[in-house]
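Researcher: Sequence recovery benchmark, item below. Answer with residues only.
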């Protein structure tokens, strides 16, 4: 039996514990977390399943080797000793990305080139800057780590969203925020500023147990270790009878996108969308559940001043009409969160979202 792999799940710093919990729930052997990642142990089938089944991981890397390297000749020599044929094939071009930090090897392009040549020569593959199969070389304090990116395109690209509105939430982040807000798949979810529908669609998929990676391709399909016969990628959903995932937005174009995206994701029968401003929002069903929203937050779309009125109106609507619902608000600005007048618990950690630091603010049932 081949020795177990060290599998590294990349995640937005601050959300490691949530991804760790998801990985444990889904039966992976979790070794621990570091900033920006969760480490698992397993075999190649675990790598494939981490890509297809985990909702919160940004990408999945396999650690191939770790060794000290203080000069390029040493890096070259060590890289040439690696069993590249176990991982790569001649017919799949490779690209190498390298970073160097606090190390004697400081020229990242030269480091990338050495590893690329070692791997390319070993298997007869070409080196191509546009290749999807990527090796990642990190040299930090003279310790070189070489990893293989097994995902290819980042995992939030589930290949269902055909249309996006302004400032969409990435699916991976939406899944982690839903989890952090206590969503377990069983309660209604409503996003009254839903944009392209990310939260209701992600919640509906979670509720019926759909594989997030059921409709896309992955880099690992090009690896020497890949066995298509043993790879499970399916579109099987549990029967969810209740359409209890809802979104509304004042922008009719956004609502059209949400409907299209829900249809592509195969959850159109579970998610209802309608066009209306926040001032007209009412509970979409009798059973209270979770309101989750990332309202506009100035830094990315527009300017902050008019947003105080919007947040105040959101808070007023929640307090007046949404008794029994929990509210989860994602915003970059504590002042805007306070403007809602909602009783939030201490906010979650700051998360980088396209250069803006956002946090999750949550209430108990109102
Ligand atoms: C940051 S975007 C939400 C993105 C969404 N979560 C997604 O993933 O696509 C904010 C949304 O709030 C909507 N919005 C702004 N003001 C609104 C209002 N007064 N009533 C309802 N929706 C509003 C915008 O049209 C926009 O789609």
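Model:
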């Amino acid at each position: 039996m081949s020795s177990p792999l060290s599998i590294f799940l990349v995640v937005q710093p601050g959300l490691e514990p949530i991804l760790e919990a998801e990985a444990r729930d889904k039966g992976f052997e979790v070794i621990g977390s570091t900033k920006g990642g969760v480490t698992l142990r397993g075999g190649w089938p675990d790598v494939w399943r981490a890509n297809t089944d985990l909702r919160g991981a940004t990408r999945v890397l396999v650690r191939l080797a770790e060794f000290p390297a203080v000069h390029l000749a040493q890096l070259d020599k060590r890289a040439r000793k690696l069993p590249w044929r176990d991982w790569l094939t001649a017919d799949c071009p490779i690209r190498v990305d390298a970073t160097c930090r606090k190390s004697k090897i400081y020229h990242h392009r030269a480091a990338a080139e050495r590893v690329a040549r070692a791997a390319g020569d070993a298997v007869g593959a070409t080196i191509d800057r546009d290749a999807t199969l990527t090796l990642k070389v990190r040299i930090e304090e003279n310790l070189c780590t070489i990893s293989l990116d097994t995902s290819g395109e980042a995992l939030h690209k589930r290949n269902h969203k055909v249309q996006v509105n302004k400032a969409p939430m990435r699916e991976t982040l939406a899944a982690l925020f839903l989890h952090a807000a206590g969503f377990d798949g069983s309660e209604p979810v409503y996003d009254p500023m839903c944009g392209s529908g990310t939260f209701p669609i992600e919640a509906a998929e979670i509720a019926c147990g759909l594989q997030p990676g059921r409709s896309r391709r992955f880099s690992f399909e090009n690896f020497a270790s890949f066995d298509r016969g043993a790879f499970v990628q399916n579109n099987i959903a549990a029967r969810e009878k209740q359409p209890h995932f809802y979104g509304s937005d004042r922008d009719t174009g956004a609502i059209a996108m949400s409907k299209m995206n829900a249809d592509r994701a195969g959850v159109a029968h579970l998610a209802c969308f309608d066009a209306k401003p926040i001032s007209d929002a009412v509970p979409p069903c009798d059973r209270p559940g979770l309101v989750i929203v990332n309202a506009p937050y100035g830094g990315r779309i527009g300017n902050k001043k008019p947003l105080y009125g919007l947040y105040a109106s959101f808070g007023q609507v929640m307090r007046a009409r949404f008794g029994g619902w929990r509210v989860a608000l994602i915003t970059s600005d504590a002042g805007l969160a306070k403007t809602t007048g909602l009783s939030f618990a201490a906010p979650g950690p700051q998360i980088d979202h396209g250069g803006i630091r956002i946090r999750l603010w949550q209430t108990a049932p109102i």
